[in-house]
Amino acid sequence: MTLEESNLCSLLLREHFGEVVDRVGTHLIRTGAQPLRMIAHDTGTLLDLVKKALCVLIQHSLAWFRVSRRGQVEYEADCTRVLRLQRYPRYIYTAKTLYGDTGELAVEELLQHGKMSMSRVVRRVADRLTDSMEEGKSMEHSEVANTFTKLVETHFLQRCPLVSEAEKSEGARPQPAPTLQEPTNDMYTLPEVNLAGRGKRRRSVDDTEGESKSKRSRLDPQDTEPALDDGIYWQVNLERFHQHFRDQAIIAAVASKLDQTSSEIVRTMLRMSEVTTTPGAAHTQPLSSNEIFRALPAGYSISKPVLDQYLSLLADDPMEFVGKSGDSGGGMFVINLHKALACLAKAALESVVQERFGSRSARIFRLLLRKRHLEQKQVEDFAMIPAKEAKDMLYTMLSENLVSLQEIPKTPDHAPSRTFYLYTVNPLPTARLLLQRCYKTVANLIKRRHYETKENKRLLDKSQRIEAIIASMQVTGAEETQLAEIEEMITAPERQQLQKLKQDVNKLDSSENQVDETIFLLESYISSTLSPH
After folding, report:
1. Rounded CA gap, 343 and 361, in Å?
2. In CATH, what number is assigned to the domain containing residue 381?
3. Fewest beta carbons within 10 Å, which of 8, 124, 453, 472?
4. Does 217 fall in a domain?
5. What is the domain range of residue 380?
6. Which of the 8 DSSP states describes residue 477?
7. Angle at the Cα of 94 (from 89 to 98), degrees rounded to 5?
8. Are 286 and 326 in contact (CB under 8 A)?
9. Measuring CA to CA, which residue among 61, 56, 357 is closest to residue 182?
């Protein structure tokens, strides 16, 4: 756990859940597993508040519990999962792209609540969609359930761990904490749910004010009757979303390097093996050219011989994104996921060097990546850069830890005159270094956004009050002249200031998303080097 990761986790927890959860979560991230009373003592927080904060963290899978050897229940935060809070908007946007507004709202509800039952998600999404529809229309529960089913079938949603059956049985010895078991066999099995009904419009405060509980229960019997899937909870499968992001990055790289037809073939291969390939696999399942040909989109008209030529071209390409399966005599093709991630990560490193130090330094960096080890004179010759400039660029990158220097002595005395000095680039340590800088960059962007909002808080509050007044007057049927008078309460300089603030915040948000794309590539590359090949 580095300082940059810890600081970013603290900012994300505070932004999403408030000060108390931030205090408890950051303390667990920095200290490791601790019992409840120790957390309350060390953070100076009331025990009840610590319990509520831990409930929030566990509900959102940001922390977990275990029983120590002494029999105490200890709580530990998951730093990696906390860092994923930054990527929540991207998950929601991806669900919208793949499954429309219904998929977007289903994923959004699960991310907001952490864990929910299918029936509750369906009801809430149907209600929200009904509110956005025209008067007199409503969303069927069955339509929302169909989208939920598709999300489960493609593994974007999965079941939560359940309490073991042995602990549920009567007469079982009480444990300090329940033991949770992953539903390995039925992780993607849908329960039986009564989906009759439509989404209901939310009533205003005036409509529900003074309404008795008995009347409310008669109107909403679903709120009192237990659902058929009670006790079966679902959560968003972040690894599946990451697999989709990785696939999209590979497809985009193939399209930019070769052409659209090649990228469509790679897309088809990835789509065929998206559910059968495990997240840490080095390559996809082997596929024959006949299987790929049958799975190509209906509107894509290429013949079988042309497909075979494209597959041979992809397999012979230096990027090695597509390879031939070694145990099938060469007739089966796979996507080399780890090699593709390494290629994408190296491209990101080259891009950073070019942006920071210029195109000539990027040329040297790229040369070292390909040739592995070179002396300074060789770098000058191969890169065709004057000696003085090449020396300055190498020393600058060496001081930034982007390039390393390896000494190979000819004699045991390590005399400089009898020693080879070879420059090299180690992609993995360089990727780790750049990843930490990306974490720090995101933290700085969040701090800057908070600063800009705080500096203009008075103006933002005034703008919100005026918008609320205008909205209420429009409901009561006010005239245009009255609305114009209210709008003039914000002066022209204040409007310019609000517009500038909006542009600045949008730029900061966009920057966070762009940096997160680099973070995802580097994290995926680093984790692929740790996975067994």
Report:
1. 19
2. 1.10.10.10
3. 472
4. no
5. 345-425
6. T
7. 150
8. no
9. 61
Tokens of 206: 């005036």
Angle at which helix 387-399 crosses helix 337-357, to 10 degrees, equals 110
Q: pLDDT tens-digit profile of 271-290?
A: 888 777 777 788 888 888 88
C-alpha to C-alpha distance for 421 and 354, rounded to whole angstroms: 24
Q: What is the pLDDT at residue 376?
A: 83
- Residue 443: which pLDDT band, with cuts at 50, 70 and 90? very high
Domain total in the chain? 5
Residues 440 and 524 in one domain: yes
Here the tokens at position 266 are 């790679």
- Residue 204's pLDDT is what? 47
- Going 89 to 90 to 95 to 101, the CA torsion angle's sign is positive
Residues 99 and 232 in one domain: yes
Q: Do residue 359 and residue 408 come from a single domain?
A: yes
- Other Cβ atoms within 10 Å of 315 Cβ, number: 16
> What's the chain's Rg over C-alpha atoms?
29
Confidence of residue 196 (pLDDT cuts 50, 70, 90): low
Q: Are 13 and 24 in contact (CB under 8 A)?
A: no
Task: Write out the two tokens for 165.
Answer: 């059956």
Residues 453 and 525 in one domain: yes
Residues 445 and 385 in one domain: no
Q: What's the one-letter identity of residue 497?
A: Q
C-alpha to C-alpha distance for 246 and 344, rounded to whole angstroms: 10
pLDDT for the residue numbered 183: 66
Cα–Cα dist 62/115, whole Å: 12
- Residue 356 pLDDT more than 70? yes
Quick one: tokens of 470? 């205008």
Q: Does residue 73 share a domain with residue 120?
A: no
Tokens 């517009």, residue located: 499
Q: Torsion-angle region of residue 137: left (phi > 0), alpha (psi -120 to 50) or beta?
A: beta
Count of C-beta atoms within a 10 Å radius of residue 399: 9
Contact (CB, 8 A) for 335 and 246: no
Alpha-carbon distance 253 to 524, whole Å?
16
How do residues 101-127 score in pLDDT, each as one tens digit?
899 999 999 999 988 888 888 888 888
pTM summary value? 0.85
Kind plus residue range of the DSSP H or E element containing 151:
helix 141-153
**Cα separation, 139 vs 131, whole angstroms:** 9
Task: Note the pLDDT tens digit of each residue in 62-83.
Answer: 998 888 888 788 899 999 999 9
Q: Which of 194, 219, 236 is the last residue of a domain?
A: 236
Q: Are residues 439 and 519 in contact, defined by beta-carbon separation less than 8 angstroms? A: yes
CA distance 1 to 436: 11
